[in-house]
Design a protein that fits this description.
The protein has a three-stranded mixed β-sheet with strand order 1-2-5, with helices on one face. Strands 3-4 form a two-stranded antiparallel ribbon. The chain is built from two helices and five strands; from the N terminus they run βββββαα. The chain has one domain. 22% of the residues lie in helices and 32% in strands. It starts with a strand and ends with a helix. The protein has helices spanning 56-68, 73-77; strands at 2-3, 19-23, 27-33, 36-42, 45-49.
Length: 80
């Protein structure tokens, strides 16, 4: 996993591992929540996988869980 503050998306030029997860820059962006649009700090999380090694559906579920944890402050507090 990497943090890439200068990029919004990441795609490895070649694979040397079965998966790469990256977090892009956190920037103020338009965000829809409860039917209203507001400006919020948003970061993009991307994953690149080698489909010969990992099932794409499982990688999608993993990425959804990674994205869910920072959006729930109580969840983050449980890691302390």
């Amino acid at each position: 996993m990497s943090t890439l503050p200068q990029f919004d998306l990441f795609w490895p030029l070649r694979f040397s591992s079965s998966a790469v997860v990256a977090l892009g820059a956190i920037k103020p962006r338009a965000w829809a929540e409860n039917g209203a649009v507001r400006v919020a700090p948003v970061g993009r999380i991307t994953i690149a996988i080698d489909h010969r090694v990992l099932d794409g559906w499982k990688a999608d579920r993993f990425l959804a869980e990674v994205a869910r944890v920072p959006s729930d402050p109580a969840e983050l507090a449980s890691f302390v």
